[in-house]
Amino acid sequence: MDAWLLLVLGAAGGSLRALVDVYNQTMAWQEARREYRRAADGEGDDPPPRFGDYFDPIPDAVAALVHMGMGAACAVLFGLSGQISGVYAALVVGVSAPALLTQLGRVQTVGEAVTGPPVPQGTEVRVEP
């Protein structure tokens, strides 16, 4: 699969991830309004919850761009290394890019598994006989 197609599909997957976040925020706002209506019963001067309390346009737009970038990068890396093939796989990698990158950050190298984690410089290592 071409790298440009992988890039676009991964970014599309990342944007789907952002849309899921917007959906979750919208559902939380809707539930808060329902709770307000049940609890208020026409009493009190408090206004109902505003959508702006659940959705912050600038940070949410930045998060969407970050998700798209992560999705694009992951789809290209997985696609060009032969680990995925096909449109659906590239979209799925784009959607799941944050989780994939988190898992990759936790992968222990073979050397670390055998010898233990690296020791920071300036730390004295004592070997007990």
Descriptive labels:
single chain, 129 residues, mainly alpha, flat
Q: Radius of gyration, Cα only, in angstroms?
A: 23 Å
> What is the tally of helical segments?
5
Largest sheet, in brief, is: none
Structural class: mainly alpha
**β-sheet strand percentage:** under 5%
Determine the fraction of residues in helical runs and give it as a percent range: 55-70%
Order of helices and strands: HHHHH
- Tertiary shape: flat
Q: Averaged pLDDT, please?
A: 86
Describe the structure.
The protein is built from 5 helices and no strands. Helix 1 packs across helix 3 (87-95). The protein has one domain (3-106). The protein starts with a helix and ends in a 14-residue tail after the last helix. With 129 residues, it is mainly α. The mean pLDDT is 86.
Write the layout of secondary structure elements.
Blueprint: H1 3-40, H2 57-80, H3 87-95, H4 97-106, H5 110-115
Brief overview, please?
This protein has 129 residues and is mostly helical. The chain contains 5 helices and no strands. The radius of gyration is 23 Å and the shape is flat.
